[in-house]
Each structure stands twice: as C-alpha cells, then as structure tokens.
Design brief:
Shape: elongated
CATH superfamily of the largest domain: HAD superfamily/HAD-like
Largest sheet: 6 strands, parallel
Distance between the termini: 13 Å
Helix content: 40-55%
CATH architecture of the largest domain: 3-Layer(aba) Sandwich
Mean pLDDT: 96
Length: 227
C-alpha cells in the first residue's frame, strides 16, 4: 500500500465540529438586517448558507438592491464572529481523535473553505499549530466564493508549498473528494456522524470513521479502508 509524505486536512467536520445550520442562518440574517433587509427570503438565506457562487450572490443582492461587497462584508463578519463565540462557549470543539495527528511524521497542512482567519483561530484555540506546517482558508471576499472546493485553488497552493511526491487529502464532503482527485492526490472520506449517510457520487480512495484510521492510511497501512 502507498505510504504518503504529505497529508492535508479539511477543518470543519474533520478536525473540529462543523458549524450548525442554525448558527449559519443567524449570521446571514444578521447581515441582511445590518444592511436594512428585515425579511430576507428563506431561499436566499439557504442559498448563502449552502454555498452560493459569485454570480448567485450578485443576483441575491440585486433582488434587494444591495451593494454586494457591503452585504458580503457584513455576512463574513457575522459568520466569523458566530464561529468564534461557539468555540469559546464550548458548543463547538475539536474531535477527540485529533490526537492521532500528533503521531504523524509527514508534512501536514489544513485546507478549508472556511475563512483563513477562522482556521488560524482554530489552530491557536485548540493548540494545534505545531501539528501543521501550513494552512489555507479563503479570504473574506466575494471573489473567494468561486475558489472554494471543489476548485483546487487552495489545495494546489498548499501542495506547492509543502512539496512531496505523494499526497493525501482528508475531508468529510463530496466536494473534498472531488477537489482531491482534480488535484491529482488520493482522498480519504471521514464518515463522521453528521455525514455518515451522505450518498457520494464520486468514490474516495479510502473511507474511515476516525483520524486514527487516517493515521494508518497515511503510513501505508490502509488496505482495510480502501474503497
């Protein structure tokens, strides 16, 4: 079995609990209210929560005659602050099996669709900085929406920085698996409780339910996890 020299991790749903749907909705609604929209349509709120594109965001803002950059600045600020508050309150935490990463000898990094500043907060808050040589999250800009996975933009940047001949990307969503394969690296789907029933349209290289399994895969002992 392949032994890998570079291991990249998604953050939400892999290293830490993902933000709840309700928390993300509240952040979007707060942003709308800040810019004067007291009753945003549910379909527009859901579109933003579930991951809109740049084009889609412009269309939503046009429906309320909003300046897109102004609205998005408010949304990103409320979204980031809501995440910080949940971590600080203890309602979001890191997974217990994150300790498995400390035993890895490979060069490791984080690549997330979340804000780069939020990833920085997570690594500092949970004392995970020493486990990773680099981390990438998106900038809090409208343009960054089209750079999210399955776009390989941030994954490619991390791979270029870390180098190595054989890489592995660990995620909890279909977009993670697709991004890994588009970037030419093997993938691990971590079937946490929140995504265990996900019906993937693309097959990951491996599947496991914990980071302990990821550690075995990274070190070439992944036969039992091969898809």
């Amino acid at each position: 079995m392949t032994s890998y020299d570079t291991v990249l991790f998604d953050s939400d749903g892999v290293l830490v609990d993902p933000p709840s749907y309700e928390t993300k909705v509240e952040a979007v609604q707060s942003a709308f209210e800040e810019v004067g929209v007291t009753r945003a349509e549910k379909r527009h709120v859901d579109a933003i929560v579930n991951g809109t594109t740049v084009e889609g965001l412009h269309e939503i803002c046009a429906a309320y005659d909003l300046d897109t950059d102004l609205f998005w600045e408010a949304r990103e600020r409320h979204d980031e602050q809501s995440q910080f508050e949940k971590f600080e309150a203890g309602s979001r935490s890191c997974y217990d099996d994150v300790t498995a990463i400390s035993g890895l000898s490979q060069r490791c990094g984080v690549v997330s669709n979340n804000h780069r500043s939020t990833i920085e907060f997570v690594l500092d808050f949970f004392d995970l900085e020493s486990a990773f040589e680099t981390y990438y999250g998106r900038e809090k800009t409208v343009e960054s929406l089209d750079l999210k996975k399955p776009n390989t933009h941030y994954l490619d940047r991390a791979l270029t920085e870390l180098g190595g001949e054989s890489a592995l990307y660990i995620g909890d969503s279909e977009s993670d698996v697709i991004a890994a394969h588009r970037a030419g690296v093997d993938s691990v789907f971590v079937s946490r409780p929140h995504c265990r029933d996900t019906d993937l349209s693309v097959t990951p290289t491996y599947e496991t339910d914990s980071l302990h399994g990821v550690a075995k895969i990274a070190n070439g002992d992944g036969r039992a996890y091969r898809k």
